[in-house]
Amino acid sequence: MALLTAIGLTSACGGATEPAGAAGKPENATSTAAGKPAQRTEPLTAAELKSALLTAEQVVGFEITGSSARDGAAEEPSYDAEETILPEACRQVRDATKGDDEETAAAQSTMYRGKSALAPRSTNLLSYTEEAARSRMTRLRVALRSCDRFRVTNAFGKSSVTSEVLNVPDLGDEALRFRTLSRMDEKGFGWKLVTAVRVGGVIATVDVQEITGPMSPEKLATFKPEPGPDEGVIAGLVENVTDAQGT
After folding, report:
1. CA-CA distance, 75 to 202, in Å (whole number)?
2. What is the pLDDT averaged over residues 76-82?
3. CB within 8 A of 109, min separation 6: which ones?
C-alpha cells in the first residue's frame, strides 16, 4: 500500500468557441438541452452527493469498502504531502479526481472487483456551480493536450508519467477519459485509468489503479488498460448524478 501512495494513486467545457469534446458533444452543451429535464441551479449538498453514490445492488461483482461525504472544500492535510510536478500545469492531470478549493461539497467511495482484488476503484463526486464545473473541465482538457509526459517528485521518490487521452462514451454534459502510466525506477509501473463526467455542476470521476511491477519493453509497448467491466459502473454513477440534479 505504501507503493500505491508513492505514485499518488489516492488521488476531471469549454466556452462556445471550443471544438466538440471527446464525447462527441459541443463543449457549450447546457444542462437544459432539448430532451433533458431542467436541472437545478444551486450546487448539490454533501448529503445529496452521498445519496448519488453507487449502491451494492448497482455494482454486482464489486465490493464497496467505504464511503464519505463533506460540505465545503477539502481541508489541507495535516502531514507534509508536498509534491512537485513538472511542468506545474500537469497538476490538473495528476489531481483530476481531487477537489480544488472551489467545490461546495464532495462525496467518495472505494470499491474492489471481488474480495481478493488489489486494484481499487475510486468514485468521487465534486459539487460546484455549473460555471465553475465547466471551468474545471476546461482546465483538465487543456492540460491533457500538453501533458503527455511529466515528472512527479514527493516524499516517496521520483517517477516519470505518461498520459494518453482515450475515447469516452456519450455521458453527461461532457466527458473526458485518460490513462496514466508511472515509471518508478526499478520498482516497476503503476497505471491509472480516469473517466471524468460533468453533469450540470457536478463532476463525477471514476479511476481504476493498479501496480504492475517491472515490464519488458515489448510488454510495455502493448500495455493498454481499458475500462472493461467498469463501463457499466461509470454509466450507473452518471445516471445517479443526473437523477440527483433533476430533483
Report:
1. 20
2. 60
3. 53, 54, 64, 66, 67, 68, 122, 123
